[in-house]
Structure formats: structure tokens, C-alpha cells
Design goal:
With 207 residues, the chain is α/β, with parallel strands linked by helices. The protein is built from 2 helices and 20 strands. The chain has a single domain (37-205), classed as UDP N-Acetylglucosamine Acyltransferase, domain 1 (3 Solenoid).
Length: 207
């Protein structure tokens, strides 16, 4: 009987300690986000939320109000800007990386495991790619690129992007468009179009 009571007391104190630890971690996380972005306090984040501002200029990442950000948002050292509108959902393990400009409108739903990149991420020349690797290996810092063939991305209002979608540089997605799961987007999508597949097939238009 005494053992059961002791276990309950220990578990209770452990639970209180964990709750307080998680609360403090959440406060530290929010402060870090606010230090690295224009970050509205109505935004909801999760355990996997990451905001990485390699350029160190706070104004390059703007996250407007009433959004749920569960994925990763990152700008490069040499440039990049990301603006996320209001009432936007970004799912877990989604990565939005910019070295030019990515603008996401209002009321946009972005599912999990989506990749949105406005650049090549690495040099095309094999010698330069190896130099990048050596720099990262030796310094444990991102390589200071100056040109990744960047082209801006614009995602309009009321867009829905399904899981495992990849959106490449230079793409404009019109208002109200839907991008089906596993699609690869390499060219502009018209407003209200429903697009599926690696060939970016438009199957219909919404009224």
C-alpha cells in the first residue's frame, strides 16, 4: 500500500516537473522565433517547428497572424525572404527554403512533407559541390553561397497543396488552385485549377 502511494506521489511530482519544463521550452522557442522573424504571437507552433534565418536579418521572414506553422522555414546566408500570410497551415516536415523570395498568401493549406525551394540548393559544378561539403564538414556552418540560380515563388490566396508535393523555383500558383498529393510543380498553375502528377496535369477548374 505504501509503495503504491509513494509511486503516485513520485509520478505526480515528475508530471509537474515535465509540465513546467515543457512550458519553459515553449517560452524559449517562442522567444527564439521572435528574435529571428517578424513573428505574430497568435501563431501556433509544434515540436518540429523550425525557423532558420541564416542571413540574420529579422525582416526577411514575416509570419502574419493566426497561422499554424509545424514545418521548417529557412533563408540562406546570402539572401532570401519568406512571407506567410494569415490563416495559413504548414504541416510537419514541410521545408520552405529561400535564397530569393517566397510569398504565400492568405488561407493557404500546405500539407506534410512538402518541399518549396526557390533555388538549386547546391552548385551545378561537381568541384564546387565538393567545396561546399568540405566547408560544412570543417566549419559546421552553412556554405556562404552567392548564386544558386534563384527565382521567386508566389503562392496565391486559398491554395491547397497536398502531401509530398515539390514546388520548384520560378513558379506562380494562382488563387484557389489545388495541387494533388505527390505532384511536381515546375511551371505556373492557373487560378482555380486542380493539378495532379509529375506531368502537372490540369484535371479540372473550380468555379
Amino acid at each position: 500500500m505504501l509503495k503504491k502511494i509513494a509511486k503516485k506521489i513520485i509520478y505526480r511530482f515528475f508530471s509537474i516537473g515535465m509540465d513546467e519544463y515543457q512550458k519553459q521550452e515553449k517560452i524559449r522557442q517562442r522567444k527564439y522565433f521572435s528574435d529571428n522573424a517578424i513573428f505574430d504571437q497568435t501563431i501556433i507552433t509544434g515540436n518540429h517547428t523550425r525557423i532558420i534565418n541564416n542571413g540574420g536579418i529579422k525582416e526577411r521572414i514575416v509570419l502574419e497572424s493566426h497561422s499554424i506553422i509545424l514545418g521548417e522555414i529557412q533563408t540562406m546566408q546570402h539572401g532570401g525572404s519568406i512571407k506567410v500570410g494569415q490563416h495559413v497551415f504548414i504541416g510537419e516536415h514541410t521545408r520552405i527554403w529561400s535564397s530569393a523570395s517566397i510569398i504565400i498568401g492568405n488561407r493557404v493549406l500546405i500539407s506534410h512533407n512538402v518541399n518549396i525551394h526557390d533555388n538549386n540548393s547546391h552548385a551545378l559544378e561537381k568541384v564546387l559541390r565538393h567545396q561546399e561539403f568540405k566547408y560544412v564538414y570543417e566549419t559546421h556552418k552553412p556554405y556562404p553561397h552567392d548564386n544558386l540560380s534563384e527565382k521567386a515563388i508566389v503562392i496565391g490566396d486559398d491554395v491547397w497543396i497536398g502531401f509530398n508535393v515539390t514546388i520548384f523555383k520560378g513558379v506562380n500558383i494562382g488563387n484557389g488552385a489545388i495541387i494533388g498529393a505527390n505532384s511536381i510543380i515546375t511551371k505556373d498553375v492557373p487560378s482555380n485549377a486542380v493539378v495532379i502528377g509529375s506531368e502537372q496535369k490540369i484535371i479540372k477548374y473550380l468555379e
